[in-house]
Amino acid sequence: MRYFETRKARIEIIPMIDIMLFLLVFFAMMTLRMIPTSGQLSRLPTSTTAAAMPPPKLLIEINAPGVYRVEGAMLTLAEIESLARQRQPDKLMVTIAGGEDATMQEVMHVIDAVRHAGVTQVGLAARPGQ
């Protein structure tokens, strides 16, 4: 009568490990999405009057002359202008992050493009200086 023998209960840990790894990956991915997209530029210009701003709704990075990066995609000035028009320009807050290699003319081109779209809140990213 082997059928009536009681077997000792076992706790299977392999499925539990799978679930824990899935949760670890899920929380890591969610944490990375919470970090602002301004990780590309490490050489921002410095300013002694730099102040903290609320997180921008649209971050435009100037990586090199004529190279504009918005939300991970490289766009032209016309595409930046049309993107700003699609996102309620009267409520849109734009921050422009230009590296040390960016010229003032490049920054002005971006400001003109977003202003033509109707954006009124434009900020410039800078590191606090001495």
Q: How are the elements arranged and paired?
A:
Elements: H1 14-34, E1 46-47, E2 58-64, E3 67-70, E4 73-75, H2 77-86, E5 93-98, H3 104-116, E6 121-124, E7 127-128
3D structure, described in words:
This protein has 130 residues and is α/β, with parallel strands linked by helices. A five-stranded mixed β-sheet has the order 4-3-2-5-6, with helices on one face. The chain folds into two domains: 33 residues, no CATH class; 83 residues, 2-Layer Sandwich (Nucleotidyltransferase, domain 5). The longest helix has 21 residues. Helices cover 34% and strands 22% of the residues. The model has no long low-confidence stretch (mean pLDDT 80). The radius of gyration is 25 Å and the shape is elongated.
What's the alpha carbon Rg, rounded to whole Å? 25 Å
Structural class comes to alpha/beta
**Could you report the average pLDDT, rounded to the nearest whole number?**
80
Q: How many extended strands?
A: 7
Shape: elongated
Termini, distance in Å? 86 Å
Poorly predicted runs? none
CATH topology (level 3) name of the largest domain: Nucleotidyltransferase, domain 5
Strand content: 15-25%
Characterize the largest beta sheet: strand count, sense, and whether it forms a barrel: 5 strands, mixed
In quaternary terms, these chains amount to single chain
Sheet with most strands: strand arrangement: 4-3-2-5-6
